[in-house]
Amino acid sequence: MINDALVYPMLAHVLLVFALYGLLTVARAPSVWGIGALKDGSNPWKTIEPRISANLSNQFEWPLFFYVVSLIAIVQGMAGSAILVWLSWLFVGGRIFHSGVQILTTNIRLRGLVFTINFLAVLGMWVCVAFTNVT
Predict the structure, then answer these.
(1) What pTM was estimated for this model as a whole?
(2) Is residue 2 situated within a structural domain?
(3) How many domains does the chain have?
(4) Burial track 97-126 (b if 16+ CB lie within 10 A, e otherwise)
(5) Is residue 107, in this structure, part of any structural domain at all?
(6) Which domain holds residue 16?
(7) Residue 38 CA from chain centroid, whole number
(8) Closest CA to 65 of 91, 93, 100
């Protein structure tokens, strides 16, 4: 049986994506189905819906490298590595924080700083996997 320590952060990210799909569905409901529309027929989520959509798209960009390195670590028997597990949870926490910043604010600088957490966490995972000899 493989060590599943990296599966949990991967699952946490998948759950974030499910939650974002749910939020996007709610945000689009007034425009698509008229559910939750204002009295004048407009969508109360009009300004935030594009940010939710953009954030959801972001979940399929850099996170791809997180999944690949996690799977490589699992196959190589490194999934229980404390540093990899710590970095993977840092990545997931950073993704959640990044989603909040992107959806709830228009602060591009803050969003960039938060993305750096995700970027460095995954880069660190790749360095650990690439330069650790497992025999």
Answers:
(1) 0.89
(2) no
(3) 1
(4) bbbebbbeeeeeeebeebbebbeebbebbb
(5) yes
(6) 7-131
(7) 31
(8) 91
